[in-house]
Design brief:
By secondary structure, this protein is an alpha+beta fold. It is built from five helices and four strands. It has one domain. About 25% of the residues are buried. The structure holds zinc ion.
């Protein structure tokens, strides 16, 4: 009978073998393979994609078409965790700017990734190349930094600077 909470790779392999009927060596290989643990949410630099901001962007674009027929399609970008329109046309009317302002304000308190309330958090981007800290508006569930980063003084300084501003 395999142990309930196997802690070594050999124990896990035996449990896996019992469960799957694989050869022990196959099970052992599977259990010792270095696992690249990936977070549930992967944040991307400058990207505005995500289920939280998508409806805000859609609504803003709908409103823009109403207040400005022929309005150029905004180039949305995320910057320091905020939603922005990269090149707001110089001739944009007040109503247009108001629509943009509303969207930015709403996005600033909405998790970009899911529709939960969010706030500025220093997260991690670029896991494939080692990554770096980046500011995103997100909720606790979508927040991610590598575990060994959280206590690093450099990271803590960024948190103090970006998360504690109001
Ligand atoms: Zn979220």
């Amino acid at each position: 009978m395999p142990k309930k909470n196997p802690s070594t790779a050999a124990q896990r392999a035996r449990q896996r073998q019992a469960a799957t009927g694989e050869k022990y060596t196959t099970a052992l290989r599977a259990e010792t393979r270095p696992t690249m643990r990936r977070p549930a949410v992967e944040h991307a630099m400058f990207s505005t994609e995500g289920a939280g901001w998508a409806p805000i962007i859609r609504r803003a674009e709908r409103e823009l078409r109403k207040v400005w027929p022929g309005c150029p399609r905004p180039l949305w970008e995320e910057k320091f965790g905020d939603l922005c329109w990269k090149y707001v046309p110089y001739d944009a009317a007040r109503e247009v700017r108001a629509v943009i302002r509303r969207a930015i304000k709403e996005a600033s308190v909405t998790c970009q990734t899911c529709p939960s309330p969010g706030r500025k958090r220093v997260v991690w981007v670029g896991l494939d190349w080692g990554g770096m800290a980046w500011v995103k508006t997100c909720c606790d569930a979508c927040y991610y930094v590598p575990p060994n980063t959280r206590s690093a003084p450099d990271y803590q300084r960024l948190v103090e600077w970006y998360e504690n501003q109001s």
